[in-house]
Specification:
heterodimer, A: 633 residues, 27 helices, 3% strand, B: Helix Hairpins, elongated
């Protein structure tokens, strides 16, 4: 394989971005479709090359390829920043996830964004995002990685605020940017801290230092925690989770790509990339697992009561990201990334399903929907597959990775296992609540009422086909690890036979436990929202405080906005800063100006306007100079 | 007693001081202008004297004195014009009354 191939993978969407923004947008604006085709072609190339790289990595010894790097910045002798790429198993898996999901979503977007005035801008940003994301998973040093890391954050900001004329979208974009920035601060601090202690930005050197024990103790723990803070910001882990539900203001394919499948998973990827560092710090690894498990149950509980389909799925994403963190924390890269891999497909599909439903009904409120199974059969079937996969039903993909996380957490952290198991129940409940309310029963919408139901329609083929492909992946992507070779590929896994992998798992008690719990969740949703044997309103009334707490998202937005931003920042710190600005900065500037004016006013008295006085001064000056020269010259 | 360079220079200095005193003390603008002429002529005396006593074979000083006279004539023309303009606007040529530039 030529060495240019991995470079081309991330540069190809970058070129697409440049072409769209410099050529297509200014000169071919009356052909908006061109920008969509350009993006799809560029990402198609990336996708093809990603598969090529995957095949090469599978063949390569140790599952990694050596790519010669480029010297970029020389700080002083011996310390330089290289632009280089890591191409190993983790990278190869991420490349496949990002490029495949991105390609399908770009195709879908052609239908979803049809006729939007910002169509070329949308595709330009999507290309840019995909380029940054593909670069992120390949970067081999911290500086380069951080650059891409911020790049995807920027694209996330731009795309959440895509409909920037809506204040909600503009605010959500700002919120996402600022909240993730809090985490990134920790990440940047960790980068500088690591550089201070080791003198290198190179990720693989840091790995070997951690493995050799040179980088150890509290230094390693702090560095790992700093990296995790960046990861927590990006992956919307507690307590930086508040931005992700608001990010749903962006176009739905954006949510599917950035806020479900790829960018939010970048946090999980980051922890996986630095796993040797976490592995050698018990504290850091435990914190990752605890935060992950807590976020999983915490977000899932909020997902139970949301009425906006995208927000349910968004909380589900946070919850599943928590699962991945838990997986990384309790067992290692293979388990966490396996869940990331499966999750990318079914969660992207759930979002695309939500987008498809929105395309038909014009709303995201599930109370305004209902009965869509008849008019939107394809959306219905694919959504069901994704929902079953998310709930962890055998033998769909979600089952396999979730099950592994449960098994490992049962072995090492029984308490976290309990949280994870409760989350399984909640997950099954909230996603099937959506399924039954949206697709079951009769249409309740008011927006289209005067058009009657026949106006509701299935989405166009350009949207349905990517969903069907994703549904296929959602169903079968978990089977890749049946023989344990996905785990082996990423470093550790138990080899077993294909049939043993497929059926053997049913012989163990733990999978049955999680299946039964998930089944109960689905049944409860069925009883409450389909047959109405249990009235949801009655349940809501019985647990009013709980319901209010959940639907107000534990008052986290209020906590952050009123207490942190309002009291601490605006009324506390900012008042102090304003006083400093008024009295110290303005004061000194105004003081100097005032003194200058006063001095000028005093001196202006010398200017009498009397010509002869001036003449006298001149004469006296000359005399003085002459005398000086005479005596001292 | 022969007349030496010092005599001429003392004469020149005296003339210059008289002119300077006049220029700084008289209130009538026309008299100030005349005083300035005296100062210029004091310089001419010094120039011619230097020329005569130090480099007798070249006429640099004399020529320079002629130049000064030409410039002085031009200056008088401009100066008188200014004085007339001043008189027209202020009805006086008293220099102490012309203090619009007072700070």
């Amino acid at each position: 394989m030529p060495h240019q191939v991995p470079w081309l993978i991330w540069l190809s969407p970058m070129f697409s971005f440049i072409i769209i923004s410099l050529i297509l947008r200014p000169f071919f604006n009356h052909h908006p479709k061109l920008s969509g085709y350009t993006t799809i072609a560029a990402i198609g190339i990336s996708c093809f090359l990603s598969f090529w790289v995957l095949i090469e990595v599978l063949k390569a010894p140790g599952h990694r390829l050596e790519i010669p790097d480029i010297q970029w910045v020389v700080i002083e002798d011996g310390i330089s920043i290289h632009l280089g790429l890591i191409v190993d198993a983790l990278t190869a898996v991420m490349l496949i996830v990002v490029s495949v999901v991105s390609l399908l979503i770009q195709i879908y977007s052609q239908g979803y964004m049809h006729g939007d005035p910002g169509y070329p801008r949308y595709y330009a940003f999507m290309s840019l995002f995909t380029g940054f994301m593909l670069g992120l998973v390949m970067a081999d040093n911290l500086v380069f990685l951080f650059l891409f890391w911020e790049g995807v954050g920027l694209c996330s900001y731009l795309l959440i605020g895509f409909w920037f004329h809506r204040p909600a979208a503009a605010n959500a974009a700002k919120k996402a940017f600022i909240v993730t920035r809090l985490g990134d601060f920790g990440f940047l601090a960790a980068i500088l801290f690591l550089f201070y202690h080791t003198g290198t930005f190179d990720i693989e050197r840091l790995h070997s230092l951690a493995i050799a024990g040179t980088l150890a103790g509290t230094t390693l723990t702090w560095a790992a925690l700093g990296i995790f803070s960046g990861a927590a910001g990006k992956s919307a882990q507690f307590p930086l989770h508040t931005w992700l539900p608001d990010a749903m203001e962006g176009p739905t394919p954006v949510s599917a790509l950035i806020h479900a499948a790829t960018m939010v998973a970048a946090g999980v990827f980051l922890v996986a990339r630095f796993f040797p560092l976490f592995e050698h710090s018990k504290v850091a690894l435990t914190i990752v697992a605890v935060i992950g498990a807590f976020t999983a149950i915490f977000a899932a509980s909020m997902g139970l009561v949301m009425n906006d389909i995208k927000r349910v799925v968004a909380y589900s994403t946070i919850s599943q990201l928590g699962y991945m963190m838990l997986g990384l924390g309790v067992s290692g890269v293979a388990v966490g990334i396996f869940h990331l891999f499966n999750h990318a497909f079914f969660k992207a599909l759930l979002f695309l399903g939500a987008g498809s439903v929105n395309h038909a009904t014009g709303t995201f409120d599930i109370r305004e929907m209902g009965g869509l199974r008849r008019v939107m059969p394809w959306t219905y079937i694919t959504f069901i597959i994704a929902a079953l996969s998310l709930a962890g039903i055998y033998p769909l993909s979600g089952f396999w990775s979730k099950d592994e996380i449960l098994i490992y957490s049962f072995k090492t952290q029984p308490f976290l296992f309990t949280l994870a198991l409760i989350t399984v129940f909640m997950t099954a409940f909230y996603i099937f609540r959506v399924v039954f309310v949206v697709f079951g029963g009769e249409y309740r919408g008011t927006k289209l009422a005067h058009h009657s139901e026949h106006k509701l329609h299935e989405s166009p083929a350009v949207m349905v086909i990517p969903m069907v492909i994703l549904a296929f992946f959602s169903a079968v992507s978990g089977w890749l690890n049946l023989t344990g070779n996905f785990g082996e590929f990423l470093g550790h896994g138990e080899a077993r036979g294909l049939l043993e992998g497929f059926f053997g798992i049913l012989g163990k008690p733990l999978p049955w436990l999680s299946l039964i719990v998930a089944g109960l969740g689905i049944y409860l949703a069925y009883a409450m929202y389909s047959t109405r044997r249990i009235s949801p309103e009655a349940v809501g009334r019985t647990f009013v405080p709980l319901y209010t707490t959940l639907s107000r998202k534990y008052w986290f937005d209020e906590l952050y906005e009123r207490i942190f931003v309002g009291k601490t920042l605006v009324n506390g710190l900012f008042v102090g800063l304003e006083a400093f600005d008024t009295y110290a900065v303005d004061g000194s500037v105004n003081g100097i100006a005032d003194k200058t004016i006063a001095t000028g006013r005093a001196l202006s008295r010398v200017q009498t306007g009397q010509l002869q006085l001036y003449g006298l001064f001149i004469a006296m000056g000359i005399v003085a100079i002459t005398i000086c020269f005479y005596f001292f010259g | 007693m022969s007349v030496s360079l010092e005599h001429y220079l003392i004469l020149s200095a005296l003339l210059f001081c008289i002119g300077l005193y006049g220029a700084l003390s008289r209130r009538n603008t026309i008299v100030i202008l005349m005083s300035i002429e005296i100062m210029l002529n004091a310089v001419n005396v010094a120039l011619v004297a230097f020329s005569r006593y130090i480099v007798p074979l070249v006429l640099t000083g004399q020529v320079f004195a002629l130049f000064v006279m030409v410039v002085a004539a031009a200056e008088v023309a401009v100066g008188l014009a200014i004085i007339i303009a001043l008189y027209r606007s202020r009805e006086t040529v008293d220099v102490e009354q012309a203090d619009l530039m007072k700070g």
